[in-house]
Amino acid sequence: MKRILFILTICLISTGLLAQQNLDFSKKVEIISPQINSDNTVTFRLMAPNAKEVKLQGDWMPSEGWITKLQDLQKDETGVWSFTTQVLPSDLYSYTFIVDGLKVLDPNNVYQVRDVATVMNIFLIEGGLGDLYKVQDVPHGTVARCWYDSPKLDSPRRITIYTPAGYEAGKDKYPVFYLLHGMGGDEEAWMALGRASQILDNLIAQGKAKPMIVVMTNGHTSNTAAPGESSKGFYKPDMRAPDIFSGDMEANFGDVIKFVESNYRVKADKQNRAIAGLSMGGFHSLYISANYPNTFDYIGLFSPAILPPANAASPMYVDLDAKLKTQQDNGYSLYWIGIGKTDFLFQNVVDYRSKLDSMKFKYQYRESEGGHTWANWRLYLSEFAPMLFQK
Amino acid sequence: MKRILFILTICLISTGLLAQQNLDFSKKVEIISPQINSDNTVTFRLMAPNAKEVKLQGDWMPSEGWITKLQDLQKDETGVWSFTTQVLPSDLYSYTFIVDGLKVLDPNNVYQVRDVATVMNIFLIEGGLGDLYKVQDVPHGTVARCWYDSPKLDSPRRITIYTPAGYEAGKDKYPVFYLLHGMGGDEEAWMALGRASQILDNLIAQGKAKPMIVVMTNGHTSNTAAPGESSKGFYKPDMRAPDIFSGDMEANFGDVIKFVESNYRVKADKQNRAIAGLSMGGFHSLYISANYPNTFDYIGLFSPAILPPANAASPMYVDLDAKLKTQQDNGYSLYWIGIGKTDFLFQNVVDYRSKLDSMKFKYQYRESEGGHTWANWRLYLSEFAPMLFQK
Question: What start and end residues bound the annotated signal peptide (chains A, B) (predicted)?
């Protein structure tokens, strides 16, 4: 009898009805949302019998000017609001509901990502590009959150390091890919929004990318770690722009390399170092590779922000043309630039390419559809990683 | 001009107004929620001018029977609903809003945890116990998510491993603490809900706990990893009870020990092994330590579920009394049992203690306030870890 009571009670806990656990009001009726249909349309559902209006905002939806055009959901007689999309290409997507003007996460979908101060639900459509972003039954790398010293900055600083499957058990040395986030990001961004560990696991398992270590830093020198992961506590994240043109990230990047090369089995030479980043991280990758001109053989600028303001005083930003000339003379295997056709930084990239062209500085150029989005940055990572360390 | 446009556009992105980024409807007015006031009361706020009723559900709130009594928020003339709590003791807390019957996460608080299929916001009150759960300016350990082989199970399986500050740079060998989750958990639970890495960082920095490696497994043999981290994809989590009395977790625990002792610098002897778990993990810790009777010198049962059903056929569950006798004869340094006074498993623990008493099997007993809650399990970890490896 006691055992039956135990099982019953466990079942009660599982429905969230015990005060000792946490209530879940979404469970009175079993709602499936999002439901990926067999034709790759997606049905969203929300139980909200008292709502007057439920809208959907998703990152695949068209926009008018800067603003996404929201999609209305329709209510049925049971109080469930729903909407089914058109067929969506295989990819990872994000969305939220807006209920009577209030942003509401889907209570039936626990899969979420944070972008700066916004939390969104995510879902994945398989059968194409999305398969690269999915955890597959392949050997998995290890993802470690560590802290390294950077004596001239507020330190220790948090860093995310991916080591490929087989690293622990083996004795091989590996090449290293430094992968930098944008202005709204931190050392979690490429993992959470960029699906970096899934992309690397899958590309390596398919034989399309070399096994490599991927190092994801925090590019904001005014923070030691992602929101919630430092002694600042649970503060409200924002865009902390003041540090982005200080040059401190670039000037102290040697501490990152030193930490990695002291603590991991790496091939510590130029041929086995790559650096790439998105937006602000593209800006960082440009200046770090130019200021350490014989350090990286592979450089990737993803939707890069390129030029610091004229009053940016750091020596990191001085004499860029001369630094690029030195980098050119030293040589490199790949200088890769990717940008979306509707990215607000498109013209910056046109200007930068003109500069490079006028110097006969060789680079590969990739122009994609879309704008300044994680969809593009995941795509660029998927295309860039296979080109690394193939010599 | 271009640079000014660039800065302006970056600012626009930071307010979430660009369609290329994700809209955040919460930002029209700057709302602070939750606000921890200087007297340790907490003010919650939600902008919802169209709502008829906004309620708060928090894990510190009183309950009637099984159900938490919800707290009403009051609306002001700007459409902001608010409520201020009584003074709360220093701890980590979780909550959600209920808006016109719909569970709504606080759009102004990005800090969340998932418990099975429920996502909740969290906040922390400093100045006491909560300080142990906070990231402090102390040396930090590394937290790695790895995959290990367990040939008789669906494998590889995901595992979370904490190594203390100094592990990478040093050459010392460390003791190992195996820390197991409950029926609703996985290899993320002790990190996300249990604040294990913060507790260990802080206790070690204060000299209250020995530096140790902490190993957090996934105790559900029907899953290889936490929801979203395996090839099952983004399925809706539930309580997957079918595997809990199979004995497979216990029978294959040797694979975990083998992985840890092959891949980390550990002291691989009984004196330097501890095992503890909460609820189902307490059950696992009891049976693993009894079935491997000369392996663990420190055993912790936190709010343990204790007896498998009579039809549980695994050899792991057979002859418990004889196994306990062997464990008793072999000796151990600490057998610790903690339970809350209102825990639904309280009587099970009374019965188990009677059994131990009748055998003169020595144990330490800790009875706390409250029930089957993460507040208790964090507390137990904070008290148990300092007792480990002190010989």
Answer: 1-19
CB contact under 8 A, B19 and A65: yes
Q: Kindly determine whether residue B108 and residue A236, on different chains, have CB atoms separated by under 8 Å.
A: yes
- Read off the amino acid at residue A260: V
- State the pLDDT at residue B243: 82
CA B389/CA A166 separation, integer angstroms = 31
Query: Is the CB of A26 inside 8 Å of chain B's CB atoms?
Result: yes
Supply A85's token pair: 């999309």
Question: B196 is written with which tokens?
Answer: 């294990």
- Say how far apart CA A244 and CA A308 lie, in whole Å: 9
Find residues 85-114 of chain A whose CB sits inside 8 Å of chain B. Answer: 94, 96, 98-105, 107-112, 114
CB-based contact, A305 to chain B, within 8 Å: yes
Lowest mean pLDDT, pick from A162-176, B25-39, B79-93, B260-274: B25-39
Residues 6+ apart with CB under 8 A from B118: A16, A22, A23, A24, A110
User: Can you tell me the distance from the alpha carbon of A162 to that of A216, in angstroms, rounded to the nearest whole number?
Assistant: 8
Q: Strand B42-47's sheet: what is its strand order?
A: B35-36, B42-47, B80-84, B74-75
Would you call A48 and B101 a contact, using CB atoms and an 8 Å cutoff?
Answer: yes
Q: How far is residue B269's CA from residue B126's CA, in Å, rounded to a whole number? A: 38
Assigned fold of A20-127: Immunoglobulin-like (2.60.40)
pLDDT tens sequence across B145-156: 999 999 999 999
Do residues A92 and A122 touch, judged by C-beta distance below 8 A?
A: yes
Is residue A22 very low, low, confident or very high in pLDDT (cuts 50, 70, 90)? Answer: very low
Neighbours of B146 (CB within 10 A): 24
The CA distance from A330 to the nearest CA of chain B, in Å, is 30
Cβ partners under 8 Å of residue A8, min gap 6: none
Q: Is the ipTM of this complex over 0.95?
A: no
Q: Which segments of chain A belong to CATH 2.60.40.10?
A: 20-127
Which residue, among A287, A265, A144, A165, has the nearest Cα to A216 in the 3D structure?
A144
pLDDT tens-digit map of A200-210: 999 999 999 99
CATH ID of B19-127, from 1.10.1040.10, 3.40.50.720, 1.10.10.10, 2.60.40.10: 2.60.40.10
The CATH class of the B133-387 domain is: alpha beta
- Which chain B residues touch A112 with a CB distance below 8 Å? 112, 119
Q: Span A367-377, mean pLDDT?
A: 96
Q: Where in chain A is the domain with CATH 3.40.50.1820?
A: 133-387
Task: Show the 3-state SS of B60-82.
Answer: CCCEECCEECCEECEECCCCEEE
A-contacting residues in B 271-300 (Cβ below 8 Å): none
Residue A310: exposure state from Cβ atoms within 10 A (0-12, 13-18, ≥19): exposed
Answer whether residue A157 shows pLDDT above 90.
yes
Give the model's pLDDT for residue B241: 64
